[in-house]
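Worked example 2:
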Amino acid sequence: MGGRKLGSPGNEAARTLLEQRFTSLGLTALGASYRIPFTSPYGNGVNVAGYLPGSQFPDEFILLTAHFDHIGSKNGQVVCGADDNASGTAAVLQLAEYLKNHPPARSVVFGLFDGEEAGLLGSEAFASAPPAPVTLAKIKVVLNLDMIAQGTQGRIFVGGTSYTAALKPHLVSGFATSKVAVIPDFEQYDAYSDQGPFLDRGVPFLFFCVGDDDPFYHTVNDTFDRIPQVFYWATVEAILETFLRIDGQPTLPEMAAPARQIPPFSVRWNSNLWGLKHHDN
């Protein structure tokens, strides 16, 4: 889809595909449509979100997120963004299908965010003004999936456990029988993916990523044929197991810092941070 850059025809095509998938799953829209447009000082876009009402705690929400946009092209060549972040987006869709057939205890929002590559724009817009019936206080935990397929070292890194230690046992249990090794307490990039705006506001989260193990980050080589399929499927299955353990708890923990309101786009992401460690050539 041409690299799915914010505002591009390929980005619109991706949104259409996601909307069709949500429709086929019968998810409930947050408002009149699965599409939630936003404006920002740095660019405008459209998030795609839907939810499943919880069977036991319908007023509590778990937010499953991934960003569907990418960077477009470089030097006239499309950068497909298979790991970054078609991998997370596809996983959210698969988890939505599973949970549709196995109703969760809590309401689950499937939030596919636009404009992550331009500075966490879609997630910032959502976190600063969640659409009804979601409120910031009702979001009990965010699970963000960003680059979860290119596990060249057989491991997945997870941020957020240093902030909300009570989530760590559920994470470890979720990966206990997995072929994938889990590395918790990985907080290096917490502010640089879509959990960042929720972290800023005191919402507990788990951030799943392969981190610097992806050798194809923002290059033309980030393509589907290079995805290690066994690793990817095992990672998604273990994330599902982690989700089920969290959702199965009678109460969920709060982060040490209380939830707080912050004006939209008052905290600005440095879009070049990962560029300090990766060579985009």
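The chain has one domain: 9-276. The chain has six helices and eleven strands.
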